[in-house]
Amino acid sequence: MSEYQYYEFQAIDRPLTQSQMQELRRYSTRATITSTRFVNEYEWGNFKGDPKVWMEKYFDAFFYLANWGTREFMLRLPTRALDIEDAQRYCWGDSAVVQRKGEWVIFGFHSEDDENGDWEEGDAQLSTLIPLRADLARGDYRCLYLSWLLCVQTGEIDDDEKEPRVPRGLRTLTGPLDAFAKTMRIERDLIAAAAESSDDAEELPARNEIETLIGSLSEAERVRLLVDAAVAGASPQAELLKRFRNSLGPGQRHAAQARTVAELLAAAEVRANERHRKETEQAHRRRARREEEERRARERYLKDLGSRKAEVWVKVNQLIATKQPKKYDEAVALLRDLRDLERRDGQTGEVEARLRQIHMQHQGKPTLVRRLRKAGLLDVE
Questions:
Q1: 237: phi then psi, degrees, rounded to nearest 5
Q2: Residue 381 predicted with pLDDT over 50
Q3: How far apart are alpha carbons 72 and 180 in whole angstroms?
Q4: The pTM is what?
Q5: Alpha helices (H) in the chain, listed in sequence order
Q6: Number of Cβ atoms within 10 Å of the Cβ of 48
């Protein structure tokens, strides 16, 4: 198999300047470069840049795919949009990493699959995942919890470690969250086991609650938010929602009994075994229904065949007389049907006698005789 690599970067909050686009062009003459996007595919050669450096300098999202099983996904958010210490509780090992770089927090997610049985090209996958950035800015940490499960799945966390806070809404994944789980190849049974401790998703604060929050800000803080929005294109929503979450009393925060990694893995195994049992039962039922439908269809066919048996014998002789191998196949199929009809009706003798007669009459046609023997219709040597 030839090599295939896909790189895509997207700028969301701030479009690239002409100078930045020229800088990027020096890394590739073939790449598609716009004020918001860099895309390149490689079937030979390698990417000459450094995705981590590019995320620090230019872009807010990155996706990489290779046909040998590697997938990488990165997101960049302003530090004021989230609590990095809280986010770090979900990021362990190599599969999920979070780092603070100046004014930015950068998340990196990594998945490997040596078997690589589900490889596909990378186009459009990043666009499906980008809404997770806004989710994180709103305090929705479901994708971070899923990345923690990925670390559990890859064995990067000890069995006696306890899980971080389970986000609300884990039982009902949005389209981007579902795409994240599939892209990172997180086991569905593990997600389902973890979701047992997840409450329903919480709604965004009401308008009057945000108005109250804004009213509590100083004049300088309100001016800064507006200037950032006007000059840098930064949405004030993320920071306001972060402030709102921090203002909640302890009774309004979601808390669940933390489980150990070993407990989660055991629960996932139970779910996997139950799912396999149900799938096996469903497969048996489908096969039984299919076999019953085939039996009924066969019975209808034989009933019709019995009503026109005489003309079928005529057709068998006509097909044999053509001396054409394909016509021999049709004749053999009809002879097999006539034998089954005879057995169904509890009659024996006629078909066997006619087969002996056919053999005697056409024993000089080895192609026909071989087909009859292969179908189990002729035992005469």
A1: -60, -45
A2: no
A3: 11
A4: 0.72
A5: 18-25, 51-57, 84-88, 125-129, 131-137, 142-153, 175-183, 188-195, 207-216, 219-227, 237-247, 261-307, 309-321, 325-344, 350-362, 366-374
A6: 9
Give 305-373 as a DSSP string.
HHHTHHHHHHHHHHHHHTT-HHHHHHHHHHHHHHHHHHHHTT--SHHHHHHHHHHHHHTT-HHHHHHHH
CA angle 209, 198, 243 (to 5 degrees): 25
Place of tokens 């990345």: 147
Whose CA is closest to 120, among 190, 73, 65, 82? 65
Cβ-count burial 132-166 (b if 16+ within 10 Å, e if not): bbbbbbbbbbbbbbbbbbbbbbbebbeeebebbbb
Q: Name residues whose C-beta falls within 8 Å of residue 176's C-beta, 6 or more positions apart in sequence.
A: 128, 129, 130, 131, 132, 135, 143
Q: Is 90 exposed, middle or buried, given 0-12, 13-18 or 19+ CB atoms closer than 10 A?
A: buried
The dihedral formed by the CA atoms of 367, 372, 376 and 381, expressed in degrees to the nearest 10: -70
Residues present in the chain in total: 381
The answer on pLDDT for 237 being more than 70 is: no
Q: Are strands 61-66 and 104-111 parallel, antiparallel or unpaired?
A: unpaired
For residues 160 and 234, the answer to whether their CB atoms sit within 8 Å is: no
Token look-up 């949009």 returns 81
Give residue-wise pLDDT tens across range 257-288. 889 999 999 999 999 999 999 999 999 999 99
Q: Output the furthest CA–CA distance in the chain (Å, rounded).
A: 109
Could you tell me the residue ranges of all domains in the chain?
5-202+254-274, 308-381
Residue 219 in this model has a pLDDT that exceeds 60: yes
Measure Cα distances from 295 to 161, 301, 338 in Å: 56, 10, 16
The phi, psi pair for 101, rounded to 5°, reads: -125, 95
The answer on pLDDT for 115 being more than 90 is no
